[in-house]
Design brief:
Pfam families: Na_H_antiport_1 (PF06965). The chain is mostly helical and 436 residues long. The protein is built from 15 helices and two strands. It has one domain: Na+/H+ antiporter like domain (Na+/H+ antiporter like fold, Up-down Bundle), CATH 1.20.1530. 69% of the residues lie in helices and 1% in strands.
């Protein structure tokens, strides 16, 4: 007999405040996704133009304090420094979802977590199978197709699925954020070649001071930013990828206000405040600049394209993104529904989940980062990796668009009926009876 308890349903609508917050995030990520796409196209065109030498010179331009071992190239600053901001925002979003968001309910949180895990395992397995007999360390790239790009995926969803239920958007956002957390764990554990213990332990000092200050609700940038930079630089010096520092700093930030400030319902905590401040910087500057520095690959004409297409590494990446991600996400979601008491929400169909699962195959930012770590920036294999990521992501976007555009037309009529049914308080009747 179908379960009529909405709170136990998979991908349920959630609360009205949560729907409003997701809509605000989507607007920002849509702009960020457009800038990311523009930056990637500019990089690709520039790298295959007569001015390729200027592009490579820009990538290799070095600056920073040599005394702190931070005299890095612009490409390194983009991947190690700017992406730390990206992961800081992702960490804030993840913490907020599980502390004060709809996903604090384990029955709701289990679905995107399981989907994210499935979306990491299956692509990695497919890549490993394809490259099982490949030589010269090809298996080092097993994690490349495991990442979902938040900005790109949400931008595509916002463009082609404006009328899709907010539950799907929340699901994709949370899945992508958990996916990023898994990626940063993978980077820290599997792509740290040499670990310097002293700087890593030293990073705990500014991190602890940062945590104490934010727990006391201190917002002074002249106190927090130097501590954040010190934490980042020490993590960078330890050999662990510096983006890990962004997640650690985010997890230290409180989500809700303290009891002395009026309890959890008294207002937003510092996590939401920082997210509001740093998300435009992440989506509008950090990620597009990284794409500009990382996405430029010299295709080498038809011969170069054939070489990339014949490389098992590229084949494994494309198959991992186009097949592995949707299979893993869809299978994990189905297993949660099959072996728990939860049902798919009555407003949704499994074809909706299929569309989002395919959309999860858009891997870009973190995939490019892992590719650089696995094979080295500027190598022939790194070029093949970039081509494969671009091809796989574009294919996933097109396939997902075909599925979700049809569903969007169906939900357009449902959405129009909901908007016409609003009460005087401005909250759709479908959300009435939920926590505000």
């Amino acid at each position: 007999m179908p379960n009529t308890d909405r709170s136990a349903r998979l991908l349920s609508r959630g609360t009205w405040p949560e729907a409003q917050r997701i809509a605000e995030i989507l607007r920002k990520e849509t702009v960020g996704g457009a800038l990311l796409l523009v930056a990637a196209v500019v990089a690709l065109v520039w790298a295959n133009s007569p001015w390729v030498d200027a592009y490579e010179s820009l990538q290799d331009f070095t600056f920073g304090p040599a005394a702190l071992h931070l005299d890095l190239s612009l490409e390194a600053w983009a991947s190690d420094g700017l992406l730390a901001i990206f992961f800081f925002v992702a960490g804030l979003e993840l913490k907020r979802e599980f502390v004060a968001g709809d996903l604090r309910d384990p029955r709701r949180g289990a679905v995107p977590i399981a989907a994210a895990v499935g979306g990491v395992i299956v692509p990695a397995v497919i890549y490993a199978v394809v490259n099982a007999r490949a030589a010269d360390g090809a298996l080092e790239g097993w994690a490349i197709p495991t990442a979902t790009d938040i900005a790109f995926a949400l931008a595509v969803l916002a463009v082609i699925g404006r009328h899709l239920p907010s539950a799907l958007r929340t699901f994709l956002l949370t899945l992508a954020v958990v996916d990023d957390l898994l990626a940063i764990v993978i980077i820290a554990v599997f792509y740290t070649e040499e670990l310097a213990v002293a700087p890593l332990l030293g990073a705990l000092v500014p991190l602890a001071l940062f945590a104490v200050l934010v727990q006391r609700r201190v917002r002074s940038w002249w106190l927090l930013l130097p501590l954040a930079f010190a934490t980042w630089s020490l993590v960078h010096a330890s050999g662990v990828h510096a983006t890990v520092a962004g997640v650690l700093l985010a997890f230290a930030v409180p989500v809700v206000r303290s009891d002395r400030a009026g309890g959890p319902d008294a207002g937003r905590g510092l996590a939401e405040h920082f997210e509001h401040r740093f998300r435009p910087l992440s989506a509008g500057v950090a990620v597009p600049v990284f794409a500009l520095m990382a996405a430029g690959v010299t295709l080498g004409g038809l011969a170069g394209a054939k070489d990339a297409a014949a490389d098992p590494i590229a084949i494994g990446i494309v198959l991992g993104l186009v097949l592995g991600k949707p299979i893993g996400i869809l299978a994990a979601t189905w297993l949660v529904a099959r072996f728990t008491r939860a049902d798919l929400d009555a407003d949704l169909g499994w074809v909706d989940v299929l569309g989002l699962a395919i959309l999860g195959g858009i891997g870009f930012t973190v995939s490019l980062l892992i590719g650089d770590l696995a094979f080295g920036a500027g190598t022939e294999r790194d070029d093949h990796v970039k081509v494969a990521i671009l091809v796989g992501s574009l294919t996933a976007a097109v396939l997902a668009g075909g599925v979700l555009l049809g569903r969007n037309r169906t939900y357009r009529r449902i959405r129009a009926a909901e908007l016409a049914d609003n009460d005087r308080d401005g909250i759709p009747d479908a959300y009435q009876g939920r926590d505000a």
